[in-house]
Amino acid sequence: xxxxxxxxxxxxxxxxxxxxxxxxxxxxxxxxxxxxxxxxxxxxxxxxxxxxxxxxxxxxxxxxxxxxxxxxxxxxxxxxxxxxxxxxxxxxxxxxxxxxxxxxxxxxxxxxxxxxxxxxxxxxxxxxxxxxxxxxxxxxxxxxxxxxxxxxxxxxxxxxxxxxxxxxxxxxxxxxxxxxxxxxxxxxxxxxxxxxxxxxxxxxxxxxxxxxxxxxxxxxxxxxxxxxxxxxxxxxxxxxxxxxxxxxxxxxxxxxxxxxxxxxxxxxxxxxxxxxxxxxxxxxxxxxxxxxxxxxxxxxxxxxxxxxxxxxxxxxxxxxxxxxxxxxxxxxxxxxxxxxxxxxxxxx
Length: 348
What we know:
This protein has eleven helices and 14 strands. By secondary structure, the chain is of the alpha/beta class. The protein has two domains: about 30-225, P-loop containing nucleotide triphosphate hydrolases (Rossmann fold); about 295-348, Rec A Protein, domain 2. It has a nine-stranded mixed sheet, sandwiched between helices.
């Protein structure tokens, strides 16, 4: 049943006072596309990709793959859109060579190097309001220093200074990232990298050390999506003559919070930080293996004994199918599109 005339009259009054499009019928709102993460399993876990015009957090322990996931996200969206531009707020060192190895076009990345919390947040708000950038990344929150802390001596306590500033930032960030409800505006990808800390004095029923993330609790309510990254295993390869070489790691990702997809979902990505004998290059995901896993999971790839069947294609064994996918980019794109199609149709 459509809205009543009385409801539409109130809408008209609000729009007259606050401007056209301040309140509209939900069914007329434009669909905002999502941003790919560069990983099919992660895109599915996120509900189709990173949400637009919202702030998302990726956190974990050191060397768990957080910055790698973000770099690969930027690279994947640059590949899709030649005009994709990023503001990278580097509270830590920005490694140009490593970003390039991960596929990032650094000519389309503006780097603001600062660990001053207020300055970093001000730059991020201005970038979001300007609509000049497609992505804003903060790497990373724990490296930021609030003015109150910077101005005091080492022996002077500054409790919750960063949390207070972060709370103010998110109260302003909603306005900066808001986009029109009636016009199609340039969407924004906003990512903040954080790191777990031990929660001193906390209690865990499992006997494990309880964890917390710096920045206070206000940010946890403000984030649209929160993602945890962890390393589950190393990828080692044997070499002729004996011995093995460590060439990668498996990055496990879990949604702690998601307002647009089921929470507590898990994805695993095989990431290579060195060249592999299988042909996977430094800085790449094992995309073919990921596609096979997702295809089987969603019933697109049928198993008949040792045979793998997808459409009119047929392979004897998983290794042969994976090898075929590595060589056929069109087949990769088709299978990925079919998996995402299952997500959109609600069959995923």
